[in-house]
Write a structure and sequence with these properties.
The complex is a heterodimer of chains A (122) and B (141).
Chain A (H helix, E strand, L loop, with lengths): L2 E6 L2 E6 L3 E2 L4 H13 L4 E5 L5 E2 L1 H16 L3 E5 L3 H9 L7 E3 L2 H6 L13
Parallel strand pairs in A: 2-4, 3-5, 4-6, 6-7
Antiparallel strand pairs in A: 1-2
Chain B lengths: L4 E9 L5 H14 L7 H22 L8 E9 L2 E8 L22 H9 L2 E7 L2 E9 L2
Antiparallel strand pairs in B: 1-2, 2-3, 3-5, 4-5
Chain lengths: 122, 141
């Protein structure tokens, strides 16, 4: 899995350099996100602008990251969703779950404290 | 390639590295249909997704200890009736018991069959000689 990591103030920007998130690389993404959170990362931003295809296991890896962030009082936001990737979130109604920003700048400007990930929230 | 009839048979080992290859073939097939009236880029994504999910499912249910097991994919199109069959050599599963988790459930699994059911007109999974077959049909626009 090719991911470029960049520290931006208190946030960690992760640019996913993959065309597909599927059953071939989703386990790796899941483990990568978990390790970052276990190492103390608190505000992750995942830039998916290079991802043109996502399947159910790719969505599962992102959900795992979201839940693991919530359990550690951290956050996971998404940005750069291509239209067809976004449509997979809409089909599964997961756009209601994730904090999704149109651009990296928007994601960086958002206040993580205002939108904490909490898997138990109502 | 003529639109009226397409027959394609692909056999791949039960390894996820083949998902991209099969997905690309599915996309190419969608783009080469001659008189498809719908949005062929959406169809390309959908066929990629259906085949990726079906093959990942077959790999997941195959005997993980046997590296020689294969997944056989048959794509047949005739008079706009698309039929995709994915044969696995695993123990199988009960299709009726697979339900899509709602967004509030935050479940990481179970959305693959939901995608297939949403995109295709009919989905059937049954036992066959030496394994099982997932049969998916769709009438193209």
């Amino acid at each position: 899995m090719n991911i470029a990591m960049e520290k931006k103030a208190e946030k960690t920007l992760l640019r996913v350099r993959e065309e597909r998130l599927d059953a071939h690389n989703s386990s790796e993404l899941k483990a990568y996100l978990l390790q970052l959170l276990e190492n103390g990362a608190r505000a992750l931003i995942l830039d998916l602008s290079e991802v043109r295809f996502i399947d159910s296991s790719g969505l599962g890896a992102l959900l795992s990251g979201y839940k693991n962030a919530g359990l550690r009082r951290a956050s996971l936001a998404l940005t750069g969703l291509q239209p067809r990737v976004q449509s997979m979130f809409e089909l599964t109604r997961l756009q209601r779950v994730f904090e999704i920003h149109p651009t990296i700048e928007d994601a960086l400007a958002a206040d993580a404290e205002e939108s904490p990930n909490d898997p138990d929230r109502d | 390639m003529t639109q009226t009839e397409i027959n394609l048979e692909i056999v791949v080992p039960t390894h996820t590295r083949y998902l991209r290859l099969i997905g690309n073939i599915a996309e190419q097939l969608a783009r080469e249909l001659q008189d498809y009236a719908g949005d062929r880029e959406i169809l390309a994504y959908h066929l990629n997704l259906v085949l990726t999910e079906a093959i990942a499912n077959a790999i997941q249910h195959a005997d993980q200890d046997d590296a020689h097991k294969m997944v056989r994919v048959i794509i047949h199109l005739e008079d706009k009736n698309l039929c995709i069959q994915v044969y696995d050599q695993g123990k199988g599963f009960d299709l009726a018991e697979v339900s899509c988790p709602g967004p509030e459930e935050l479940c990481e699994r179970g959305r693959g069959i939901f995608f297939i059911r949403t995109i295709m007109d009919s989905v059937d999974y049954h036992k066959t000689e030496g394994g099982n077959v997932l049969e998916m049909r769709k009438k193209l626009a």
